[in-house]
Amino acid sequence: MEGPTKIGILTLQKQIVSYGAALQSYATWKFLKSRGYDVEIIDLSMITRFRFRLSERYKAPQQSLRKNIVHGLICDYFRHPLRVYRFGMFNRLVKYSKLYRQVDEIYANPPQYDVYITGSDQSWNPILVHNIEPYLLSFVGKDKKKISYAASIGLNDIPSEFKHLYVETLPEYKHISVRETRAKEIVEGIIGSENVSVVLDPTMLLSKEQYLEIAKPYHKKNYLLVYLLGNDIGSLRFASGIAKKNNLDLVVIGSKINGIEAVFEPNAGPREWLGLIENASYVLTNSFHGTVFSLLFGKSFNTLISDESKVSRIYTLLNDFGLMKNIIRDLNVVYDISEYQYNIEEFNNKLETFRNKSQSWLIDSIEN
Question: Which domains are delineated in the chain?
Answer without folding.
Answer: 6-206 (3.40.50), 215-350 (3.40.50.2000)
